[in-house]
From TrEMBL:
Pfam families per UniProt: TSP_1 (PF00090)
Annotated Gene3D superfamilies: Thrombospondin type-1 (TSP1) repeat (2.20.100.10)
PROSITE patterns: TSP1
Any one GO CC term of the record: extracellular matrix
A biological-process GO annotation: cell adhesion
Membrane-spanning residues: none
Name of the molecule in the record: Spondin-like TSP1 domain-containing protein
Organism field: Leptidea sinapis
Amino acid sequence: MGSCGTHTWGPWGPCSVTCGTGRSARQRNYMWPSRANADGCRVALTEFKSCNGPRMNCRVQSEYEPDPAESSGPCAVSPWSEWSPCEGCGVRARTRHYIVPRAHKRCSVGFRARTDNPHGDCPVTPWSSWSPCSARCGRGKRIRTRIYVTRDSRVQQF
């Protein structure tokens, strides 16, 4: 074990997001921090894994991207609209329509696209302060977060 021995891993922390894919972290410490520092130990003290926020129904999928051939002929569609303002969970949408009336009876073209865009025009809070360092000595990690605000004034962390 020596001076670089560590305690067992602590529990996994909460997911960094409330919807979609984020990160979770857990930590451990050296058994003898001062000896580990003196000996230059470089054992990982923080571990990360991917996680899914509890609101999986908010996870955004790109539903459809157009084929350039769909811009002409009997199934021609209009250009995409501008992206909508940010909705719940950082989701924005856009739409389009058939140019030829009643084309929907014989054509199957996607009309809605959605994207997760918390960094675009969605309102976000300032970054939080940095967390304490995960290590008392040597290399460690610090984390900070920010939150985006949905239309109904709820906040979502990412």
